[in-house]
Amino acid sequence: MPPPRQALKVKPVFLYRVYQPRPQTSWRNWGGIHTEEAAAQEVARIQEELKQLQASADFPLELAPLTATKDARQLSGMEDVQSADVLLVYANDGDLNAIAALKKDTIFFIRHKSGPLYLYYEIISPRFLRQHTDELQVPGMDNEDVVIDKYDEVLWRLRALCGLKNARNQGIVAIGGAGAWAQPPKVVPELVKKIWGTEIIDFSYEELGKLIRAARADEAAVKLAKQRTDEYLKDSNVTLETDRAFLENAFLLDHVFRKIMAQANCRMITINGCMGTIMPIAETSACMTLSLLNDDGYLAFCESDFVVIPAGMLLCGISGLPPFLNDPTYPHDGIITLAHCTAPRKLNGREREPARILTHFESDYGAAPKVEMRNGQIVTNVLPDFKSQRWVGLRGEIVAHPFLPICRSQIDIRYTCDDKLLADRMPGFHWMTIYGDYLRETGYALKRVGIKFEVLG
Asked: How many Cβ atoms are within 10 Å of 68's Cβ, its own excluded?
């Protein structure tokens, strides 16, 4: 099995000041915490809230011990501050410029009604974010990093940053090399390396052929592929409508791909030339194999399209769910059809959706799943552009899973924006779709890599 998502390391910090009364003059700022006793009570309150935050997280989250300080400059020398991915700053009082100097992703939690009022409820915008001007002035920080009272607002921001951590600086095996749909060679893969820090590990078809031939000669590997086929077909929600040999060969290819990823120490793989090159080598299509890998927690993409692959990396990092890479069609009457010959079945991370195992459509060869995605399911669609500058987000609802003469896994989704607006704003080609609504998280993460995110509807 692949390694789990990396935990997001969060360092909570409580900033406060102690004031002494002075006669006949102002001696304190706004707020309800002015003494050590009040600060100690607030520390205890925060610690209990952090336990609840940890328990409610649906992503890997590692909370460091809370630090309470009257001097934010001391934080720079602390090991758990330096190793943190994110600072969760309880901005009661004190110097936030010292927080900004740490150059860490930061979420500011401020109390209005959830406890004693914080000073920064009044001044975080004019004094800190705008630095006494009319425009935002602090690099890497803006109004979306401020949360008032609500921990669910903290949680989705942390979820976004966990996704970003798990999308950055990752390795992916590219069978047949890296590509990009209809784009000049190498341009997009180089952009992906620059923006996301992705290590693209080229793996030739010649080497793949050697491994497949070795697997066919391995009685244990062949036996295991047949056994896994038997187990898969016991599922009452699966019907086989292609030659069984294609499905057995898909399981054998799955065995080979897992070994390749293990040797490369990564959990992602993509295939260039999946529409033809791999078929005579594997004696099946790769569609079913990719579906199996995605259901087991890997990230496996067809077509080696590095225009859209980062969107799958990010969405999976955010949600922990397998994404569906697909071809969009043309929007009309509030509906658009999305389709591809491979799709995960365990789209909600738990149960497998029903599936018909057919041939790959264009070749009428191999094994490809027609996954019957559930009607009424809300989905997040991310539409990346070719230049990695502007991505579009579209919330949709699955309203049908038809059986048209197109790629096998297919859905009609309903959206709420204007048809022409969607047609005008659609960039790139391939889309990435995932169960659930993760548009907020996607946009929050993308601004940290310099990609604009436009949500339609």
From this structure: 18
